[in-house]
């Protein structure tokens, strides 16, 4: 059965309804939110204005994902490499989750959203860590959309840490090397408990993974758009899901 979602589209797209089948909604969507700086530059504005508007897009897309029936939404908010940016920009990015949660947490709770965070939280400023911990705690019993922020997250670091942990257990005789398999590794990664993303979206025209969920994206469908993240909205999410539904997922086998 095809559900028409024409009314969700922006004015310029109203002539082209997006057909979405409710039976094949990706369970887990992961997003590399890119292009904040270029969006701002194009408008002659400071980069941080791009990030501020990127935060608004996080809200829009969370609501749209929830309405669409997506179960898990992972957003790449800050990578382990983003510390290389100028201090003022890093400080601003560290304050954004605090601001986002101050504005949105009550509505997220009302919508039964569960907030999670994955990444090295030790290195975050205490105000960022505290705001995230509070959001995680206040939403831990919610049963709706899981909104998972990748914050100070790096795919290689995640794998390194997991390998180290397993190596220690082997050295201590607590783990038999023959018991190391994909399932065990899945459960020990920062995303443990979440299914692998079905769909990975990257905005701004860049076509790379930038150290994002390197293990988990092994069989995800990838969708790239030229749209800068601050402009991304529900109509783009719908386009991505519609394209996802046209893909044939074979996992290395035959159809
Ligand atoms: C990449 O764009 C974006 C980031 C490094 C930060 C992403 C963060 C947000 C969208 C806001 C997060 C909000 C919450 C609530 C955590 P860029 O700055 O690299 O853009 P550019 O490539 O055009 O310079």
UniProtKB/TrEMBL annotation:
It holds the Pfam family Prenyltransf. It is an enzyme of class 2 (transferase). GO terms for molecular function: ditrans,polycis-undecaprenyl-diphosphate synthase [(2E,6E)-farnesyl-diphosphate specific] activity; magnesium ion binding; manganese ion binding. The active site is at residues 34, 82. Its EC number is 2.5.1.-. Keywords: Magnesium, Metal-binding, Transferase. Substrate binds at residues 35-39, 47, 51, 79-81, 83, 85, 202, 208-210. GO terms for biological process: polyprenol biosynthetic process. Homodimer. This is Isoprenyl transferase. It comes from Paenibacillus stellifer.
